[in-house]
Each structure stands twice: as C-alpha cells, then as structure tokens.
Amino acid sequence: METRINLPQSEMPSAWYNVLPDLPTPLAPPRDPTTGEILTPDKLEPIFAKELIAQEMSAQRFIEIPEQVKDIYRLFRPTPLVRAKRLEEAIGSKCRIYYKNESVSPSGSHKTNTSVPQVFYNKREGVKRLSTETGAGQWGTALSFACSMFDMKCTVYMVKVSFEQKPYRKILINSYGGEIFPSPSDKTNAGRAMLAKDPDCKGSLGLAISEAVEDAASHDDTKYTLGSVLNHVLLHQSVVGLETEKQLAMIGEKPDYLVGCVGGGSNFGGLVLPFLPRKLNGENITFVAAEPKACPTLTRGAYRYDYGDMARLTPLMKMHTLGHAFMPAPIHAGGLRYHGEAPIVSNLMAEGLVDARAYYQNDCFEAAMLFLRTEGFLPAPETSHAIACAIDVAKNAKPGSTVVFLYSGHGLLDLASYDAYLRGELTNYELPQECIDEALSVCPTIAG
Ligand SMILES: Cc1ncc(COP(=O)(O)O)c(C=O)c1O
Question: Which end of the chain is less congested by CB atoms within 10 angstroms, N or C?
C-alpha cells in the first residue's frame, strides 16, 4: 500500500483557483476605514501591488501562475500527501487519515505559497521594500525567503510574545536578509502609542499589522503584504487543495472530511476551497476548521464589519471577529492569535458550509506529541490544532471515512513551546465572554 502519494512536477497546478465566482452568496464589499463607504480599488494602491488588488476582486475562476513563481514553487512543490497509518493504529481509527505536508517548504510552512507571488508582483511593479507583520514567525520567514529569491528588501514586525518565545525565527529572517522588530516597536506611531500606554505590552497580530501598514503608507518605495485573511492570499493557497484533489484521485479516494487549523484562514481555505464546487454539487464533504479556545473567532466571534488591525488603518471587512481591540492570551500557537477571519471563510461559515471546533492548548500539544511519536515529525503549535481536530473527527466519523488534514508547518523552531509543554508549564485558557463583549463593543456598526 502506498503511504506517500507524490505528484510529478509536471502535474503541479498551472493556475490558482479563485472561489469568488462560485460562492453561493457574494462577499460583502470591503469599506473605507474612515468613511465607511464601499472601497474603490484605487484606495488600496498606496499599500498593495496593483495586480494583487485585481486578484482580490477578480471574477475569473482560474488565474494563471506566472512562470517565475512556478520556478520557485518547484523548489518544494508538489508537496506529498501522506497516509498517517501509524497514527490511525495508535488511536484505533476505523477511518483512513491523510495529511498534506506543507512543512517541506524552505521556510517551513504553507505561507511560502503566497509570499512568492506577492513578492513577484510587487517586484514587477517596481517596489523596492516590503513590510509585514508576523505572529509565530512563519509568515515573516516565508516573506523574507521570497524577498531573497527576488532581491527585495523586507521588514518584519513580529508580535513581541512570539519574538521572545521563538528567538531562532529572528536569526532565520536575518539570514534571508530581512530585518525584524518586536511589535510594539518604537519605529511607528502605532507602536509608540501602545508602548506609552503599556510598556510591557506583549503585542497582537492586529497591532503588528498596524505597524507594518503604517510603515508602507509612509514610505514611497515600500508596500505592505499580508500572509492571510485576504482573498488573494487564499487564491494563492489553492495550490494546496488542487494538488490534494489530484493526489486523492491517483489512489481512488474521495474525501469525507477536510480539516485545517484557522488563524486568518489561509491554509484552511487553500485546502478546502477547490473542493467547494464538488460540495455544492452534492458530494458529502465536511469542511472542519480548528481554532484555539483562547482565540475562538469562528466559534464565538460575531459576523460583522470590523477593522483588520488595532489602529483602524485597514479596510473594514465583513468577517467573524472577536473585535480589533482584542488582545489574545499569550498561547503558543502565535499564528492563531488573530481577532478576525478571512471574509471568504466567514461567508461560508455563515452559509453553514463550514463546521468549526475549538480546542485547548494542552490537548493540541498532546495530539502533537502523539503525531510525533507515531509519524515522526514535529508539528508547529498551529498545526497541532488540525491534528487534534483530525483525531477528534476520525474517532467519531462513520467507519471507512476518509479524513484529510493540512499539516501546515513544522515545529522545529518552536522547541521552547514544547519544552514548556513537557515541563507541565502550559495552561488551558478559555476566553471569558466579558472579554468578547468588551472588544466587540468598540466595533463600528455598519449594516450589511
Ligand atoms: C504553521 C502555521 N499554520 C497555520 C497558521 C495560521 O494561519 P492561516 O490561518 O492563515 O493559515 C500559521 C500562521 O502563522 C502558521 O504559522
């Protein structure tokens, strides 16, 4: 029996899949953060490359992947689909469990699928430097990797709690030639304002985004890039699901469950969206999103317009949100500590097409240890949520079901988190309702 399903490079997708024309209900339009009016594309031009803005709103179902991007994808794509036979045996599963391994990219996660095209389009439009935020450090690393491939400058604002938990991310980002600052930093007005209010602030993705957007908006040669949430990011991540579809077909499998962890929704979207047309045509495929109980955006957030960042610089998007002012607990899955969710994933959740589940941090580390001791690889703490969820799904599914989860990244630079887990120092945290109510109370009220 084949346990590793490898696609030949000649089978790597030549176009990304854009779900927008296939959504049962159209996305609510993004709105101007100051006026609340529907946003016109030119308003985004000071911070984003034009081609990425076009992709954000495209009605075209397939968008060709440029040759230069495919060249870099070929360093690690297609990625393997693997049957987790030993994990199945360990949990006594009557289901078949597969994982799509995106940890084999140079930077260690799926984030490279979008960093490469984002850098490519910016370079083509004459941009010299890119700014961004990073939570766990995976996105910052992916962007600095891509910048080194296209000879661009890269500035990363890393959420301070993760910067301190994962010092080796800084070294890797510096090695690719990028610069990195812990956020809140003294480099921007947003960072300085937070430091003046709370000098010990551990940061949040919402605040790091404010710093990176401000950096881009205040420098003519610089644009901003985002590693998740936006439509064009999920578009680029569709290579994951498109490959998975071909790999399952190669072994005559049909998925019953597709599982991914959700921070801003890009790895989950990348896996499940290419299967949406099949689901809408009546195939019984369940999309399951796994998130932390400490940051339960889909399971307990409100579906409404909100800002993508703390300083209210980004467009207003209709999405599941815990409130842009929400400061999540310093759990170790830094990439899942985001208050919002991709508008596309939120739209599908509101349509009842996505099932979301929340897990405690210690249960996820326990699942990660089981995976490590059966399949041999050390997952990123974010990925451990998908593993915990896949195990949960497989234990409760009809015998004979096929469960596919996305192994979004490795945890080799997250060893301090595993050390804390092994020492019994990690606590389970569930977000109190008062915190959600308080953060949502300062969200704008916009109909639609
Ligand atoms: C390994 C890994 N998985 C998942 C995520 C969550 O992000 P997204 O929901 O955009 O895939 C991150 C974010 O940093 C990550 O580093």
Answer: N
Sequence-ordered strand ranges (E) for 84-143 = 96-101, 129-134
Q: Is 142 in the pocket of ligand 1 (CB under 6 A)?
A: no
Taking the alpha carbons of 340, 44, 120, 183 in that order, is the dihedral positive or negative? negative
Q: Confirm if 386 and 84 have CB atoms less than 8 A apart.
A: no
CB of 266 within 6 A of ligand 1: the answer is yes
Tens of pLDDT, residues 56-115: 999 999 999 999 999 999 999 999 999 999 999 999 999 999 999 999 999 999 999 999
Strands (E), 61-149: 62-64, 81-83, 96-101, 129-134
Bridge partners, 62 (sequence order): 17
Q: How far apart are CA 151 and CA 146, in angstroms?
A: 8
Which amino acid would we find at residue 126? G
Q: 11-26: per-residue pLDDT in tens?
A: 999 999 999 999 999 9
Q: Which of 4-8, 33-37, 348-352 has the lowest mean pLDDT?
A: 33-37
Does the beta carbon of 267 lie inside 6 Å of ligand 1?
Answer: yes
